[in-house]
Prior knowledge:
The protein is mostly helical.
Amino acid sequence: MFLANYLIGLREGLEAALIVGIIVAFLTKAGRRDALPTMWVGIGAVVAAAVTLGAILTFGPYGLSFQAQEIIGGTLSLLAVGLVTWMIFWMAATSRHLKSDLEQKLSATLHGGSRGVVLIAVVAVAREGLETTLFVWGTIHSTSTAATAATGAILGIVTAIVLGWLIYRGIVLINLSRFFFWTGLLLIVVAAGILGYGIGDLQEAGFLPTAVAYELGAWLPHTGVVGSLLFGMFNYIPNPSWLQVVGWWIYIAIAVPAYLYVSLRRTPGQSPTSGQDASDAAQPGTAAPTDAAVPTP
Length: 297
């Protein structure tokens, strides 16, 4: 689970870092740096709330009955899949013009005072924190290596913070549209695995039938090298039920084509290779656009 949670922490953290970086640059240009301390306090509060929620989800259910634990686990896993799927599609639809669109909203909001701009930053981080907490908890809930999974998520978030600062300063240029595109595809497969475990929890609670579809444990056990990699990255199940198999394939069959359509379609006035607005060109010391290109050798 280390790689899957590292990817989750990196992607979610980078989204939040980019949005916060754009807002910091906007407030600085607008001469409203006095609002930055309030913004950082608000962001710190929502991060602490996300950590508290993760602790409650992890340790709270232990006092409940087995059935209650499975019901809570299955329901929250399904909720996590829904939230992260929405996040993936939202970023796919807005990544090309995130900077320009956000700055337009910030300009309109700033006329009513800086509190509205600060609220946008706090809400953005709170949303990413909630999604990260639920999704990481879903992966931890499906494995016994909770410490490894949590470490992966933390390192991913730390990497995202460092990378976001480097992008903000103009030190690093990266094609973020491609980054979000490929990580989005990977997270769809990860989410499909979480969906399977959510269904499994509800089956163990007695809510759904548990007929086994096939048994691969003798050929590809999740304790082997390949099985461990598949289990750690995509929640591989060697003996899934028919409901888990059907749910996995239905989710993939719907999510992947829809994601490719949203990600690859061109907006009016955009050239097939541009991938960003001319107004989103990055400058050192300002928040980079979400499609900053990696310099080619």
